[in-house]
Amino acid sequence: xxxxxxxxxxxxxxxxxxxxxxxxxxxxxxxxxxxxxxxxxxxxxxxxxxxxxxxxxxxxxxxxxxxxxxxxxxxxxxxxxxxxxxxxxxxxxxxxxxxxxxxxxxxxxxxxxxxxxxxxxxxxxxxxxxxxxxxxxxxxxxxxxxxxxxxxxxxxxxxxxxxxxxxxxxxxxxxxxxxxxxxxxxxxxxxxxxxxxxxxxxxxxxxxxxxxxxxxxxxxxxxxxxxxxxxxxxxxxxxxxxxxxxxxxxxxxxxxxxxxxxxxxxxxxxxxxxxxxxxxxxxxxxxxxxxxxxxxxxxxxxxxxxxxxxxxxxxxxxxxxxxxxxxxxxxxxxxxxxxxxxxxxxxxxxxxxxxxxxx
Length: 359
Hints:
- The chain is α/β, with parallel strands linked by helices.
- The protein has helices at 3-13, 45-53, 58-67, 107-110, 137-151, 186-193, 209-220, 234-243, 247-260, 291-297, 303-309, 318-327, 333-339, 343-352, and strands at residues 18-22, 28-31, 34-37, 69-76, 80-89, 92-100, 125-130, 155-160, 173-178, 200-203, 224-229, 261-271, 278-286.
- 37% of the residues lie in helices and 25% in strands.
- It starts with a helix and ends in a 7-residue tail after the last helix.
């Protein structure tokens, strides 16, 4: 058994999400969003190198030594898969392992509003799942692909770095491609995807201008494209996409995006009030008759009122989702206050309940 497997078993036993192994520090596990040190001494550089290199094949070792960064997937049969990142830092080598459960959970089990299943019924367009690192974007995307797999007869191509959740064909055919192993870049894989007769294309991350341009173009061409971005709400998501492009191209991209964008799901994970896990807060935007004009005119400030006007259709603002979780006592007042954008509004809610902001 590789030495790292013992650490990874501890992640599962402690109901953790991540393992941090860095030379010069004590091994740590992230449990419900908080890092906890293991009762072990700090790892020396030679120890960290031995543990981390043991599970690398020759190709991965060569790439890491050439670039000083490496992403890959690692699986312990019958236990879990892990998304792994290796890197170098001032004290030597480091590795972070994110646990990926073997079973793909449904949106209902993830406590994501099931109204977002409607994205899966679309036949074309761009759907974005956004949030900061560690907010559960990949897990939500896996649930959406699994819903398609169980509900429709479609060809789904995923492009991931690395492959996290593994899908078995059900009603659909799922082709999963991994960066560096099956393709050289997201952009290359997207160019090829158009010739592979897909119905649905999933892009693990829109990292650069060319990948974003191709994702939008494929959505315009009639494919249903799911992708992720590291943004916290719908308005910032649209701004981020537009601002990636040079000024002289932005008008054209606004027009393309106005036709292709069908929805945005932004999510955050917030600790439960009892400290025994985390719960998602979500902002949901569906394409409306007014959204194309908002995007073309660059008036993203109007998106808030667009979402508020669409509550009856299942749309919701991030702040409303957070406040609802607080009112149900699912999350603490402190955690809610730290996450809401409109602090004054939340302070008024606390004041009406006789609570004070004293942290």
